[in-house]
Design goal:
mainly alpha
Length: 173
């Protein structure tokens, strides 16, 4: 920082001298200078898990047997990508990622149950399309924001699968 009293960068120079002699100070300065964290493995895995759970629930709600089969197939495809993502993640961290998905997705699935009871298959499919559009946007955002490098290829495959799912779901509307 420019020191107006001395007409120079005295504080910065002093900090640099001190940090050279104190490695902990350098680490603290580096930690403060770190950018905000981007998306992580947990965000990505939860998004995929929400999709698997969503397709499972949606398949149970629809009355059309052919549509139910399609939804089971889409669930299987998403589950395969979830498995790939989990195999990419450090085994010690994998155990921490076990779970049922996010609370917001669970609420969305509850809303689906109400819609199915009131409005039938068409409304359930529209809600599934909305969920897939959300997944498409989130995966794109994660890729743009710097998802961990070891998950990039899996995320791209997930994005391709979500787009294919959207096309398939839109054919039912």
């Amino acid at each position: 920082m420019f020191d107006h009293r001395t007409g120079g960068y005295a504080r910065v120079e002093r900090y640099e001298r001190e940090s050279m002699s104190d490695p902990n100070l350098t680490m603290a300065a580096a930690a403060v200078a770190m950018p905000a964290p981007g998306p992580n493995a947990e965000d990505f895995v939860q998004l995929l898990r929400d999709g698997v759970n969503g397709y499972t629930e949606t398949a149970e709600l629809v009355e059309n047997a052919e549509l139910r089969t399609t939804l089971h197939e889409l669930r299987s495809e998403r589950s395969t990508i979830l498995g790939k993502a989990m195999r990419t993640i450090d085994p010690e961290y994998r155990a921490e990622l076990d779970g049922d998905g996010t609370v917001s997705a669970a609420l969305h699935r509850t809303w689906l149950e109400v819609k199915a009871a009131v409005a039938g298959d068409a409304s359930v499919i529209k809600a599934a399309i909305n969920a897939e559009e959300y997944a498409e946007a989130e995966i794109g955002r994660m890729l743009d924001a710097g998802l961990p490098e070891d998950l990039v290829l899996t995320a791209q495959a997930a994005l391709d699968q979500v787009r294919a799912s959207l096309a398939e779901l839109n054919a039912w509307v």
